[in-house]
Predict the structure.
Amino acid sequence: MNTGPALVSILRQGSYLIASIHTALDDSQLMRLQKDLVDQIGRHRSRGVIIDVAALDVLDSFGSRTLRDIAEMARLRGALTVIVGIQPDVAFAMVSLGMGTGSVHAALDLEEGLEYLDRQVRARQPGSSVVVPR
């Protein structure tokens, strides 16, 4: 039985899921996060996913690709994804190594991530007068 601290927590806030990564994850843990998030999107009928990486001081190419894959899987399940909390040193290293978040939106922190999802979800609702570029 594992009694250590949680490596990742996934919380539901309204129609959103917030996945906070508390420490660096190995490849199998990242794959577990991916499966858990995609499953929970359907279970909770989530419209958005926030992945908080503020606790990470490094993000390798596999981690970066897995985050992009999660966002694409979420999109196919009807949810938008935003990554929040990328530390300055991590952002610098990712750009230097040619890695990035692809088309996945990134925000400074959880508050900005929630605001972004609120705007995007409202814009996608039928009858919305907001025009969202494709």
Q: What stands out?
A: The domain at 8-124 is CATH 3.30.750.24 (Transcription Regulator spoIIAA).
